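hey
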């Protein structure tokens, strides 16, 4: 398999890393034993200091390495990859955590002000702490606002909701009554031309509009076969759309993959 994306690299990492409990695994490139797989659990962005729990969830990442370490080839491995993979977290969980972070920071600032009023803390130290806490609060609040906005665009798009409402109104108030009117006319006259008009209207107008409304309303649709029943499963948002991650954290830090030679 060619490793062209971070997702490819992650797939190869777990595919071969979980294949055996030995420290040295089979190389996904040359298929010989001697590859070392390592993973660092958390990697915080270098520009963020004193990250809150919510920020760690949103902007943290894990760093993985895949390196072929065969004897006599340590200085020239056939595969030497290091990549970071952004944390994935549900929007709902992340927003709840960020709200808790903001509340905790606000309470800390209020407590600091009380200590200052009653002179429980030196004024210069209080000013420094206040500035520090205020900077973190501003940063977290800004991040929460941007993440909330992204969630609304992806999962609660007002333009999408307005379009669905417009189509549904047209479908219920205009198209269905018109189709019923044609069918009522056919029931009275038994005119085949009228029946053909009804069928044509259904195929060209009614069915396509119904499909448009359904597809825009539900991101995920599938039929689950549970003999002897079939169950239609529909979700307004797919799982991938409900998950937030920082795209900039999905990247290769080092990628050296040599051609595979016949052994």
């Amino acid at each position: 398999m060619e490793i062209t994306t971070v997702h490819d690299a992650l797939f190869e990492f777990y595919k071969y890393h979980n294949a055996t409990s030995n420290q040295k695994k089979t190389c996904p490139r040359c298929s010989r034993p001697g590859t070392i797989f390592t993973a660092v659990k958390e990697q915080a962005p270098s520009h963020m200091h004193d990250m809150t729990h919510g920020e760690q969830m949103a902007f943290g990442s894990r760093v993985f390495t895949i390196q072929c370490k065969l004897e006599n080839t340590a200085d020239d491995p056939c595969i030497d990859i290091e990549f970071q993979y952004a944390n994935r977290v549900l929007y709902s969980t992340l927003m709840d955590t960020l709200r808790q972070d903001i509340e905790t920071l606000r309470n800390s600032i209020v407590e600091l002000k009380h200590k200052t009023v009653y002179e429980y803390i030196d004024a210069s130290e209080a000013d420094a702490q206040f500035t520090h806490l205020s900077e973190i609060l501003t940063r977290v609040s800004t991040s929460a606002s941007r993440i909330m906005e992204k969630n609304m665009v992806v999962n609660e798009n007002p333009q999408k909701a307005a379009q669905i409402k417009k189509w549904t109104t047209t479908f219920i108030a205009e198209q269905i009554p018109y189709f019923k009117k044609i069918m009522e006319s056919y029931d009275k006259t038994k005119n085949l031309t009228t029946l053909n008009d009804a069928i044509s209207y259904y195929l060209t107008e009614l069915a396509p509009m119904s499909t448009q409304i359904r597809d825009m309303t539900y991101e995920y649709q599938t039929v689950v076969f549970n003999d002897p029943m079939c169950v239609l499963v529909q979700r307004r948002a797919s799982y991938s759309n409900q998950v937030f991650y920082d795209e900039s954290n999905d990247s290769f830090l080092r990628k050296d993959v040599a051609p595979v030679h016949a052994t």
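The mean pLDDT is 83. The helical segments are 6-17, 53-59, 91-117, 123-155, 158-189, 192-217.
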